[in-house]
Amino acid sequence: MNLVALIGEVVSPVEEDGDEAVRFALAVAARGGKEAERVAVRAHGGQAAACRAYLRPGHRVAIEGRVAPRADPAEVLADRVQFLTTRSQARQLSGRRPG
Asked: Where are the alpha helices (DSSP H) in 1-99?
């Protein structure tokens, strides 16, 4: 079984990755209070379009998907991206960060 579920903060800009796909990095909490782990995420189709339009660094998201086979370094292929940052929080983040 190859299932992944993550909640974290977007830590890179959402970048185009071929036809109807995007890629971004997600920081997720590590066990034992250690430094956060950085995970590469790729989304396709409608999920990619939503990420392209709305996701920015600092936004919190929940990702459901699977680990990409033979990807080095490891990458999560997102089947579902759920935005956890509210619109008002997103406006505040936009005011603090350029772009």
From this structure: 45-54, 87-96
Query: 24 pairs with which residues across the strands?
Result: 41
**Tokens at 11, concatenated:** 């830590």
Give φ, ψ of 16 to 5 degrees: -65, 145
Q: What is the pTM of this model?
A: 0.85
- The domain ranges of the chain are 4-96
Residue type, 66: R
CB 51 within 8 A of CB 31: no
SS3 assignment, position 30? coil
Q: What is the CA radius of gyration of the chain?
A: 13
Q: Which CATH architecture fits 4-96?
A: Beta Barrel (2.40)
pLDDT one-digit tens code per residue, 25-80: 999 998 887 889 999 999 999 999 999 999 999 999 999 999 999 888 889 999 99
Q: Which residues pair with 76 in a beta bridge?
A: 41, 67
